């Protein structure tokens, strides 16, 4: 175990952790903005309640995404100084643009949204949440463009042992980035939709029980009115289904790009050792679909797909002795987990859309959502989350041993001046802190979901609070004076 | 002006903007327990930075991102050299950000107490460490780092107290003014010690008398700090805040002036810089985008311009 290994572990731990929160920031933000738009247009009170309810869940999660993201930006310089010096000219530009064009937008307008309910005109206030979520989505684009460059470096030349950018446009329109952005952002929307489904499923089950002693029951639930969760559930189902199509489509493009740009990752993902014409694909071990891998990676069922051993020999000739294969089991399994877990979420959404379809001919009330489906919806949170994390493992473990494909090895990227002890200390601190915060966030989210949406006054000027301690605290000055 | 010099100035501007803006955030975070006697007042104090702190923090993200893009070797050298202090800064920013975000969303007073602790520790760590890191970078000694840390810490507390005085009314405001006066007893001597060390530490001049501009910035920072204290005493909150902000700006100018042209030992700006293509492209994008960014951020301060009162319902 040396500083390099620990630095890699730290990067892996902090990045995967960061990415637990990012999809919700990206997708749930848009969902909340959509709810507020619906309220703005229809004036229906339950849209406002849902906006505030999901807005609160969004904000609890948003903070974690922000603070863990700061670590990411610093970590390149801290642990990967050689990498940073080599790539800064190219890789730094999208990061700087991300901060300037996306993060300012996101943070400033989110501040305005959170605190501006009673300070801004309704229309302007609605615009602030849209500006903030545009910022979040824009940031995804810039960071993915930077990430794509590591896998498929374009628009640069190497001068004096450092990459020099020659074409920013080429970096920002890298084919790898253009496939990766819809894949990851679409995945984020699947996760966010899955989160909403899980929340709706839980609330539906709970409200159907209609326990009179349940403090977390909303007023409409008590009054026996139609469940307020039907609309957000339908919206989330549509979101997951559309995003799912985008993910599958861009995934197909990504596979073909892998064939051209990162054949080793493709071979590792299938566990293909030797060059094979008409290569098969096994979605799960033991089941093999003939010629499918060749078809997926070239759209030609008879094409030759290169194997890891052949590629290893080629790379040794090209770059000198060394092991150019990534960790094969991790890449192989993360590929399968991504596909199976991701597709099952989309299948769940398709099923849900069928179950909740509108009755067109007769004006009967909408179909009731079956309890088993509400229960299945709770799975819609972990399934796509695991899928998206597995996707990142496939993508980044599969890139090894390179940090910049064909240009810079991971082993040559690490900070030479940072000791094993230093990395061990920071890894321990971040892991422990992140663990505690993950637990706290989970508890906080569950509590808020249990409490359910608070009643709102149609006039946003009087903000109600149902926190008893809060009220006591507010009353205190009155008692004092 | 050389493009590299221009970008060094841009980064100095971003860091200085960060210190000016988040300086009072840190101060408010540390002073919240001191300035408030009950939950309503605590909300009043933290409410002064509530809508703006996250946007202020993006100045740091942008400063560091710009360093990465424009001077990769400076970025990498600074962060890997000060590895553990930087890691502690990050820990501070994490627990402070989470404390501020979650404080209004936890259900119990225990949860709020934890959030408050996060805000306190998380404001203290970066407020002290940034001063210590940059002083160590300039002077390369632990004593200087300690002095720099105490200076930045006390300046943040003072700046934060003045900001609370400007943004609140009632008992919190008078407490903030009193706290500012008490803090000045530490901040002013610390400023004299830390600021007078800056011009002499510059690698570009062997003789301190040859750095009149650095001295001008350092002395202006001291003068602005003194003015801020005097104005606080006279109850001119707005002007006092302008003065403490100018003091931080003067400190930033002196600091980055002294770091030019060698922001790290043995590394010049020219050596650290990215190629002219990258710098050119970023210049154009920055020139187009920055006015918008400054505009909407200023607008957000305008929206929340009113003094906050302890909310009585």
TrEMBL record, chain A:
The chain crosses the membrane at residues 15-33, 53-71, 91-115, 127-150, 184-205, 235-259, 333-355, 376-394, 423-446. GO terms for biological process: aerobic electron transport chain. GO terms for molecular function: electron transfer activity; heme binding; metal ion binding; oxidoreductase activity, acting on diphenols and related substances as donors, oxygen as acceptor. It is found in: Cell membrane. Keywords: Cell membrane, Electron transport, Heme, Iron, Membrane, Metal-binding, Transmembrane, Transmembrane helix, Transport. It is a multi-pass membrane protein. InterPro entries: Cyt-d_ubiquinol_oxidase_su_1. One of its GO terms (cellular component) is cytochrome complex. Belongs to the cytochrome ubiquinol oxidase subunit 1 family. This is Cytochrome bd-I ubiquinol oxidase subunit 1 apoprotein.
TrEMBL record, chain B:
It comes from the Bacteria. GO terms for biological process: aerobic electron transport chain. The chain crosses the membrane at residues 6-35, 82-99, 119-138, 144-166, 178-201, 213-233, 240-261, 281-304. GO terms for molecular function: electron transfer activity; metal ion binding; oxidoreductase activity, acting on diphenols and related substances as donors, oxygen as acceptor. InterPro entries: Cyt-d_oxidase_su2. It is a multi-pass membrane protein. It is found in: Cell membrane. GO terms for cellular component: cytochrome complex; plasma membrane. Its main location: membrane. It holds the Pfam family Cyt_bd_oxida_II. Keywords: Cell membrane, Electron transport, Heme, Iron, Membrane, Metal-binding, Transmembrane, Transmembrane helix, Transport. PANTHER family: CYTOCHROME BD-I UBIQUINOL OXIDASE SUBUNIT 2, CYTOCHROME BD2 SUBUNIT II. NCBIfam families: cydB. Belongs to the cytochrome ubiquinol oxidase subunit 2 family. This is Cytochrome bd-I ubiquinol oxidase subunit 2 apoprotein. It comes from Streptosporangium subroseum.
């Amino acid at each position: 175990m040396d500083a390099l290994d620990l630095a890699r572990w730290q990067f892996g731990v902090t990045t995967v952790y960061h990415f637990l929160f990012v999809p919700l920031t990206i997708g749930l933000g848009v969902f909340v903005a959509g709810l507020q738009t619906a309220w703005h247009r229809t004036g229906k009170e339950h849209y406002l309640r849902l906006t505030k309810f999901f807005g609160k869940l969004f904000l609890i999660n948003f903070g974690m995404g922000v603070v863990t993201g700061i670590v990411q930006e610093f970590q390149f310089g801290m642990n990967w100084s050689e990498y940073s010096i080599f790539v800064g000219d190219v890789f730094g530009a999208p990061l700087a643009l991300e901060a300037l064009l996306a993060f300012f937008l996101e943070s400033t307008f989110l501040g305005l949204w959170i605190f501006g309910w009673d300070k801004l005109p309704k229309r302007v206030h609605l615009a602030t949440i849209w500006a903030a979520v545009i910022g979040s989505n824009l940031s995804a684009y810039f960071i993915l463009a930077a990430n794509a460059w590591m896998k498929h470096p374009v628009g640069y030349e190497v001068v004096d042992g450092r990459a020099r950018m020659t074409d920013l446009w080429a970096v920002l329109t890298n084919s790898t980035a253009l496939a990766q952005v819809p894949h990851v952002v679409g995945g984020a929307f699947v996760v966010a939709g899955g989160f909403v489904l899980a929340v709706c499923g839980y609330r539906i089950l709970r409200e159907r029980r209609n326990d009179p002693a349940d403090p977390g029951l909303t007023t409409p639930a008590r009054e026996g009115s139609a469940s307020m969760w039907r609309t957000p559930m339908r919206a989330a189902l549509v979101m997951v289904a559309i995003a799912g199509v985008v993910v599958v489509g861009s995934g197909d493009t990504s596979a073909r790009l892998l064939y051209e740009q990162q054949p080793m990752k493709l071979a590792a993902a299938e566990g293909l050792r030797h060059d094979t014409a008409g290569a098969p694909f096994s979605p799960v071990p033991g089941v093999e679909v003939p010629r499918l891998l060749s078809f997926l990676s070239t759209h030609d069922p008879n094409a030759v797909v290169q194997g890891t051993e052949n590629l290893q020999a080629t790379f040794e000739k090209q770059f000198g002795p060394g092991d150019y294969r990534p960790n094969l089991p991790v890449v192989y399994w993360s590929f399968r987990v991504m596909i199976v877990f991701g597709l099952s979420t989309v299948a769940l959404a398709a099923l849900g859309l069928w179950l909740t379809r509108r009755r067109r001919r007769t004006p009967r009330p909408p179909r009731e959502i079956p309890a088993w489906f509400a229960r299945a919806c709770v799975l819609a949170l972990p399934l796509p989350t695991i899928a998206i994390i597995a996707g990142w493992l496939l993508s980044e473990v599969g890139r090894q041993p390179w940090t910049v494909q064909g240009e810079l090895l991971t082993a040559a990227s690490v900070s030479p001046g940072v000791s094993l002890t230093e990395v061990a200390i920071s890894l321990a601190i971040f892991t422990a802190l992140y663990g505690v915060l993950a637990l706290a966030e989970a508890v906080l989210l569950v509590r808020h979901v249990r409490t359910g949406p608070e009643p709102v006054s149609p006039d946003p000027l009087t903000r109600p609070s149902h926190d008893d301690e809060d009220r006591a605290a507010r009353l205190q000055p009155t008692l004092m004076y | 002006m050389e493009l590299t010099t221009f970008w060094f100035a841009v980064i100095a501007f971003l860091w200085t903007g960060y210190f000016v803006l988040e300086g009072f955030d840190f101060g408010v975070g540390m002073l919240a327990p001191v300035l408030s006697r009950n939950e309503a007042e605590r909300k009043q104090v933290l409410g002064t930075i509530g809508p703006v702190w996250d946007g202020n923090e993006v100045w740091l993200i942008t400063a560091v991102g710009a360093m990465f893009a424009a001077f990769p070797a400076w970025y990498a050298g600074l962060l890997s050299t000060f590895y553990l202090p930087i890691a502690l800064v990050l820990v501070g920013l994490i627990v402070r950000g989470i404390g501020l975000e979650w404080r209004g969303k936890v259900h119990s007073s225990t949860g709020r107490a934890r959030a408050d602790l996060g805000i306190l520790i998380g404001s203290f760590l970066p407020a002290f460490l940034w001063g210590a890191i940059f002083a160590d970078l300039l002077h390369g000694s632990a004593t200087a780092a300690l002095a720099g840390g105490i200076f930045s810490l006390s300046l943040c507390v003072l700046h934060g107290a003045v900001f609370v005085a400007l943004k609140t009314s009632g008992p919190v405001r008078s407490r903030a003014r009193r706290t500012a006066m008490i803090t000045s007893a530490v901040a002013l001597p610390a400023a004299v010690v830390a600021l007078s060390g800056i011009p002499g530490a510059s690698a570009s001049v062997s003789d301190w008398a040859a750095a009149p501009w650095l001295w001008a910035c350092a002395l202006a920072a001291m003068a602005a700090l003194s003015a801020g204290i005097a104005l606080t005493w006279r109850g001119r909150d707005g002007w006092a805040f302008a003065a403490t902000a100018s003091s931080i700006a003067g400190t930033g100018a002196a600091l980055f002036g002294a770091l030019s042209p060698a922001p790290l030992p043995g590394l010049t700006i020219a050596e650290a810089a990215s190629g002219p293509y990258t710098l050119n492209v970023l210049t154009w994008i920055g020139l187009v985008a920055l006015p918008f960014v400054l505009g909407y951020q200023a607008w957000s301060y305008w929206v929340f311009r009113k003094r906050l009162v302890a909310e009585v319902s």
